[in-house]
């Protein structure tokens, strides 16, 4: 899940965590495991965390998700896209 427009919240960690909580609740309701989903804070306008790590979110240490092959970790949206398993 790309959490976009982080620049409009001044790259707020609290807002990012709030969105993760709300989105995880929805993901559970539709039958998915939130632990199998990568959450990445990005700013599409500025390019933050899309291809390269952003210096604007020093608090962000990366994402991790559970897969059939084990735990996968990354830092950017590109990493998360690359980690998508085919159906």
TrEMBL record:
Pfam families: GTP_EFTU (PF00009). Residues 1-86 form the Tr-type G domain. GO terms for molecular function: GTP binding; GTPase activity; translation elongation factor activity. Keywords: Elongation factor, GTP-binding, Nucleotide-binding, Protein biosynthesis. The keyword Amino-acid biosynthesis does not apply. PANTHER family: TRANSLATION FACTOR (PTHR23115). This is Translation elongation factor 1-alpha. It comes from Pulveroboletus icterinus. The gene is tef1.
């Amino acid at each position: 899940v790309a959490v976009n427009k982080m620049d409009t919240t001044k790259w707020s960690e609290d807002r990012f965590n709030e969105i993760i909580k709300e989105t995880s609740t929805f993901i559970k309701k539709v039958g998915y495991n939130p632990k199998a989903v990568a959450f990445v804070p990005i700013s599409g306008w500025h390019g933050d965390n899309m291809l390269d790590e952003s210096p604007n979110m020093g608090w962000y240490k990366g994402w991790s998700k559970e897969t059939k092959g084990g735990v996968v970790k990354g830092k950017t949206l590109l990493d998360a896209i690359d980690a998508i398993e085919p159906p």
